[in-house]
Amino acid sequence: MGADIHVREAAEGAAESRTIAGYAILFNTPSAPLWADDESEAREVIAPKAITKELLDGCDIKFTMYHNRQIILARSNKGTGTLTYSVDEKGVAFEFEAPKTAHGDEALELVRRGDLTGCSFMFSTRYYDDACVERTAKV
């Protein structure tokens, strides 16, 4: 669901940047189909009111590669750590300094080359709670 992941430009004369930044969540933007068949499909759309900075500040957020919980590139535990984020009208923006590890170097190279251009996120919700989920029919 996220878009525009990039390596931040280094200041003139500074060492090469290791800052990866982008949007983890774009509000009001349909996801790629989570599943589909001939008659229906499921997509997620995150409403702006669904996520606040205060909500995120109460969470333990791990930025991982390939959703592998053992490959942590950055983390914010209750608003503190190596991962920073903000919530604006577009969505949830993030940034972090890639660690000086094999996985950090891999992430930097893949983003710089344009092989990784977006990101996704994992979360849980009460899919059967109408207060959390709106269903629409495919026409």
Give a description of the structure:
With 139 residues, the protein is an alpha+beta fold. The chain has helices spanning 53-57, 102-113; strands spanning 3-7, 19-26, 35-36, 41-42, 60-64, 72-77, 80-81, 83-87, 91-97. A hairpin with a 4-residue loop joins strand 3 and strand 4. The two termini are 23 Å apart. 15% of the residues are buried. The model has no long low-confidence stretch (mean pLDDT 86).
Describe this structure in a few short sentences.
The protein has helices at residues 53-57, 102-113, and strands spanning 3-7, 19-26, 35-36, 41-42, 60-64, 72-77, 80-81, 83-87, 91-97. It has 139 residues and is of the alpha+beta class.
Spell out the key features of this protein.
12% helix, 139 residues, 4-stranded antiparallel beta sheet, alpha+beta
